[in-house]
Amino acid sequence: MAGNGRATLEDVARLAGVSRATASRAVRGVAPVSEANQESVRRAVAELGYVPNRAARSLVTRRTDTIAVVVPEPDSRIFSDPFFAATVAGVVETLEETAHQVVLLMRSRGGGTERLADYLEGNHADGVVVISHHREDHLPAMIGRSGIPAAFVGRPITTVPSLQYADVDNRAGGRMAAEYLATTGSRTVAAVAGPLDMAAAVDRLEGWREGLANAGLDNTIWYEGDFTVATARALAARILRERPEVDGILAASDLTASGVLTALHAAGRAVPGDVRVVGFDDSPVALETDPPLTTVTNPGRELAAAATRMVLAALDGRPFPAPVILQPRLVVRGSA
Length: 336
Description:
Layout: H1 9-16, H2 20-28, H3 35-48, H4 54-61, E1 66-71, H5 75-78, H6 82-95, E2 101-106, H7 113-121, E3 127-131, H8 139-146, E4 150-153, E5 164-168, H9 170-183, E6 189-193, H10 199-214, E7 222-224, H11 229-242, E8 248-251, H12 254-266, E9 276-278, H13 285-288, E10 295-296, H14 300-315, E11 324-326, E12 330-331
Parallel strand pairs: 1-2, 1-3, 3-4, 4-5, 5-11, 6-7, 6-8, 8-9
Antiparallel strand pairs: 10-12
Helix pairs in contact: 1-2, 1-3, 2-3, 6-14, 9-10, 11-12
């Protein structure tokens, strides 16, 4: 034992009857190690209570065993939007069978860019998964300069060569939502979009407008929001004042749709009798509204898992087909 009473890798190797190099490979799960030697090392680790020295290993491997999850949003939004919870869970679950831990990097929009750049360029993480970003964040360019293996959940709004991402086909999802409202009888449809400095909001709006045009309906009634309940409630109230004939509303997210529903209820409009509402995400919020939301799927957990696998593949020097684009589905419930 070492002078501090902690077992060392040499102690493990001695007890297991193998070389230090073999013990190291067995502890790290790196081939080649025979099954017999792997089992001997496993028993020695358990008997001695050996804990790998991560700091020493980092000096040798130049790895931190850390994946940074970057969410450049205010913490109030991160902890209130179920999409973020699903995506972070997807990253964590994908890393469960690896040695990597997650560090969550948050910041308010418009602040902290320099600190984030210093963190990424300072080799404090082995890879990065970006969840949500805005044009002004300049994250694609920043990550491209750092050279760190990275993948985005959602299509980056600015194009950087070789940048990998996983996304749902937001444009197709928007189109199917608009066409569904048209087929169920809506004739004057408004849209409450997300912030148009984000690719998802732009793609959904384009899909809505395309779907309405395909149905021969006016596609010019839309308002830019920010994916929050409060803004959606205010915009829905404005729609009812300015366009009282509206009988269908497309919402950029389920949270947005819940704000729309609140405004409709306050105005005495029946849903779906007077106004049909379709959300986007198929999050737990969709089951909690009154009535439950008809919505489009946006599988954040799956998207985050795919993005994380891209980063792990890059760290191992393995090719990974990218981008990954998942097809959305319309889930019909009570709101439309």
